[in-house]
Queue: 2 jobs
Job 1
Amino acid sequence: MAPSKVLAGARVVLPTGIVDDGRVVVEGTRISDTAPPDAETVDVRGHWLVPGFVDLHNHGGGGASFSGTAEDILTAVRTHRLHGTTTLVASTVTDDMDVLARQAGLLSELAEQGDIAGIHFEGPFISPCRKGAHSEKLLRDPEPAEVRKLIDAARGRAKMVTLATELPGGIDSVRLLAEHGVIAAIGHTDATYEQTVEAVDAGATVATHLFNAMPPLGHRTPGPIAALLEDERITVELIDDGTHLHPASLQLAFHHAGAARVAFITDAMDAAGSGDGRYMLGPLEVEVTDGVARLVQGGSIAGSTLTLDRAFRRAVTVDRLPVQDVVAAISANPARLLGVYDRVGSLEPGKDADLVLLDEEFALKGVMRRGAWVVDPQLG
Ligand SMILES: [Zn+2]
């Protein structure tokens, strides 16, 4: 076993507050509360230590996607780990049901091995009016029997399904998902305010990238945004890449929902951690220019090229959100939603030693997952 390590002198962000000149003891794969005498001390003064990031919604990175082969999936996972994401839910995009069922089988094996934290099906049960970068001809209504097929194909590894709950079968599907312990996420939806309230009452608990792919907030048609923001039972996903949301919209959502009800996600596609150029998002072609991904046909925004280290830095330095709140939204809240907060999502003894080292400007300077450095500490 590797010798124990004491990361000492950092500003450590704990659920109870920020500890200046704090320390985190790593023993084997876990965080410990006491350091053995032979522990190696790493001086990380002048840095922040925060929990590893947890991404609920991510389609790929490093030129590879979660719709690809096992090797592609691992490439994408590794890419995001280099950017601090130590727990990641792999998202699919709308495709043929047979293709999705097959992919679910493959992804479930990787979840079994601990490479990913589960599967998020985004589509095909979404609204043609708010399809975003999903193939219209492959969309379908959320018939519970169809939704069931995907959950079964995921062999206990389905974590979340994004659906337009106003479509025929939508409310019954929300109930089905809730019964199976799968998060019903409202998104790519054209629902009214009232329809959204009904879906939340039926058991939906997440808003898929709030604001994006849903009707805007109107003064007499408040739509899903108002219903999702006001309900304590809902966690809202936000994409903080400077492209998907105006900073004022992000602020509005963050302050209205409160730090305990926000999850920062990437919604990343293959180009994240890779570069501009031509990519595929499921069956659709995407052009990435200056880091912004758009469909070749029609120009819809097609996921992001965001990584969570960039989202973290932006949230603190541009949006001016408190570090403690950003840690909640990027680690603790998504971990709680996934039911893994007993293992990850905070820097507490007994949990996996998943952590991110940031410098004073919030640039990533080290990543540890389960006690091993994924990015060696750069302590300039
Ligand atoms: Zn997505």
Job 2
Amino acid sequence: MTTCLYCGHNNSDNIDTCSECMAPLHYQKNGWSVSAKKKFTYFVIAVTIISFFMMFYLPR
Ligand SMILES: [Zn+2]
């Protein structure tokens, strides 16, 4: 089962394009998934919060 990045439609693994919106599915077959994007977003948010903490709470 491969979930389309663009419309979220669940496609079978043996096709290259989404059966719902015809978008290519090769990005997910190379390991670039929606959850990886979410993890990267959380990482950026965490780094931003740590930077603000450093700015305001560390002695200058
Ligand atoms: Zn789609």
